[in-house]
Amino acid sequence: QRISSMMAPTLILDDQQKPRLALGSGGSNRIRTAILQVISNVVDFQMDIEAAVAAPRIHWENGVFHLEPGLDAGDAAGSGRRSLTDGILALGDRPVWWPQQNMFFGGVHAVSRTAQGITAAGDQRRQGAIATLP
Fold it and tell me: Is the separation of the CB atoms in 82 and 90 below 8 Å?
């Protein structure tokens, strides 16, 4: 059986069909969730590209829900809402809270085009870096 690709170059177009975001990651089956979360951070939550790449990530697989630090697992008592941990347990999944950011969650590198110009972000999970060329 052929294994799935270990790369996922992705291009997001704006309303005029021009490139808005180019991103990708190498790795395993977690690259899809890593790329999707960065796209959602930019498109849905209007984060700049550096913040979107650096944001905490999640990954669910085989009944285990992996979470990076920065996602609030706290007690929601008195708020009328369930805590994140309660929600995960209600699904029957086992939460695994990672103590720090980790390559387990993929290393996404991205370039974004905005009204202010072009910006890039290298994922620190993969010791990513960016450079400006003259």
Answer: yes
